[in-house]
Amino acid sequence: MPCILAIESSCDETAAAVCRDGSILSNFIADQKIHARYGGVVPELASRAHMQNIVPVVDTALKTAGISLQAIDAIAFTQSPGLIGSLLVGGQFAKSLALSLQKPLIAVHHMQAHVLANLIDDPRPAFPYLCLTVSGGHTQIVLCESPTQLKVIGETIDDAAGEAFDKTAKLLGLPYPGGPLIDKYAKEGDPDRFHFPEPRIEGLNFSFSGLKTSILYFLQNAGKSLHYKPEQIATEEEQKAFIQANLNDICASVQRRIVEILLNKLKLASLETGIKEICIAGGVSANSGLRKGLEAYGKKYHWNTYIPDFQYCTDNAGMIAITGYYKFLAKEFSELDVQSAARAQW
Fold it and tell me: Which residues does 212 contact at the CB level (< 8 Å), separation at least 6?
């Protein structure tokens, strides 16, 4: 019954979790509120906050789980991708702890962990399954043949879906983080009110840069056009008035288009692979429109669909712990050296 202590510090959440024999015993996260005033994550501030938070967060996770450091069999940590300063804090803490306790060290790829978050709770997908992984920095379709055999079969060629949500929120004048606010206002809006284009990208890849541009022009023109027309650009006062009067409908229409882009590619992946075990993961998987859309597609195309619990959608250490557990079983350990351990691979 291996017991894994996991640490996640890829961005602005300091998180720790304890997993025993594949069950999450604790999953604790310390948020960093300071970034809201800047409209985004400030890397230097994030790394400093990690240094302040990591000891109490790990201590809380261990106490909540009722596990001592001596009972830990291995220490897992997020190695990549992420903000380098933030990753260094979590990685060096994990290495130092593993060295002092003489315990194995497990380097985890952040996106692999998002995919395997679907294995934390019942019901769990059967292998092979497809996972649409959607976050602020990534949009991917992953073919999962086993916990340690994963292959990216589709990804964004420019911007991520989460970024499209956040940039739209910024254009609408919504505070950071704006993605959840779009979801909130979309629930009160008409998704058929405004129509935004769906990019024509061959295969299973995604593109969101063109959609973001059309939303920008739409707002600059106060709803009159999706294209750049200097003669139609409204004054700042007119733009603000248009947004205020139509905020719910704009959010609902944008959200519908982003969700349709994601699910249409997922449908294509299912058709090409013949796989009907379908999951979503990542921060955007907490979006209610995407969750409802997946449920609807599942009924229509006879998929078995899976969505992680909310606490395992955004960045968290529970997903690092479950990935560390499967890597422990496969004996995929990292070297304890002063340099970076071998880069975590899919």
Answer: 159, 163, 164, 167, 168
Q: What is the pLDDT of residue 343?
A: 54
Return the SS3 of 332. coil
Alpha carbon distances (Å) from 36 to 46, 135, 174, 178, 326? 12, 18, 11, 10, 36
Domain made up of 125-307: CATH architecture:
2-Layer Sandwich (3.30)
Structural domain 3-117+312-329, CATH architecture: 2-Layer Sandwich (3.30)
DSSP state of 276: -
DSSP string, 121-185: SSS-PPSSEEEEEE-SS-EEEEEEEETTEEEEEEEBSS--HHHHHHHHHHHTTPPSS-HHHHHHH
pTM for the full model?
A: 0.90
Quote the CA–CA distance of 141 and 204 in Å, as a whole number: 8
Three-state DSSP state, 228: coil
Q: Which residue has the tokens 């008409």?
A: 190
CB 256 within 8 A of CB 183: no
Where, residue-wise, is CATH 3.30.420.40 in the chain? 3-117+312-329, 125-307
Q: Exposed/middle/buried for 135, CB within 10 Å: 0-12, 13-18, 19+?
A: buried
Convert 282-311 to b/e letters by CB count within 10 Å (16 or more is b).
bbbbbbebbbebbeebbeeeebebbbbeeb
- Positions in the chain whose pLDDT score sits under 50: 338-342
Alpha helices of the chain — where are they, by DSSP H? 43-65, 84-101, 110-116, 161-171, 179-186, 209-220, 236-273, 288-301, 318-329
What pLDDT, on the 0 to 100 scale, is given for residue 14? 94
In the prediction, which pLDDT does 342 show? 44
The sign of the torsion formed by the CA atoms of 279, 285, 286, 289 equals: negative
**What 3-state class would DSSP assign to 40?**
coil
